[in-house]
Design brief:
160 residues; alpha+beta; Aminopeptidase; 5-stranded mixed sheet; 5 strands
Length: 160
């Protein structure tokens, strides 16, 4: 039983996109996946990469992934690491894959001198919340995510 973590390469984009679709299906948000594998490749490996991916392989088979990017804390006046998605395929859950991915991201943040690691979790996802709390995370009850997309984003960009 071997677990290996590695940075994604352009050849991994189709696999990463399949994992994103599997995550969306798990979260009952398949309808929200509107991007393409080509978009993903551009954003991960194009001239201006804006995110990174770590893949977890269990005995040579991709079992999960973490997609993350740098953010910034004005209060800490330091960069941070924002975990956009962490997902482990159902057959590999309970084997330490998620823990290894999260630990790896903690190591990346420390090595890069970042002040914190942050992410969001759906309020109904109690297994994930319990896992994150066991890993030392604090689920902030008084913060809400604000989001502007699609037509609302176009409207915001043209606001007077």
């Amino acid at each position: 039983m071997t677990l290996y973590l590695r940075s994604a390469t352009p050849a991994d984009v189709p696999t990463i996109f399949q994992l994103i679709r599997a995550l969306a299906d798990y979260e009952k948000l398949s309808h929200a996946v509107t991007g393409t594998a080509a978009d993903l490749e551009t954003h991960l490996f194009g001239p201006h990469p804006c995110a990174e991916v770590v893949l977890a392989e269990w005995e040579g088979i991709v079992a999960g992934f973490a997609l993350f990017f740098r953010n910034y804390s004005t209060f800490l006046t330091r960069p941070g690491l924002y975990l956009e998605d962490l997902f482990v395929l159902p057959d590999y859950r309970g084997r330490g894959v998620g823990k290894a991915l999260l630990k790896h991201l903690g190591q990346v943040a420390v090595e890069r001198g970042y002040g914190r690691v942050e992410w969001s979790v759906l309020d109904w996802n109690q297994p994930a919340i319990a896992f994150y709390e066991r890993m030392g995370a604090t689920v902030l009850p008084d913060w809400r995510i604000c989001r502007v997309t699609g037509e609302a984003l176009q409207t915001l960009a043209q606001a007077d």
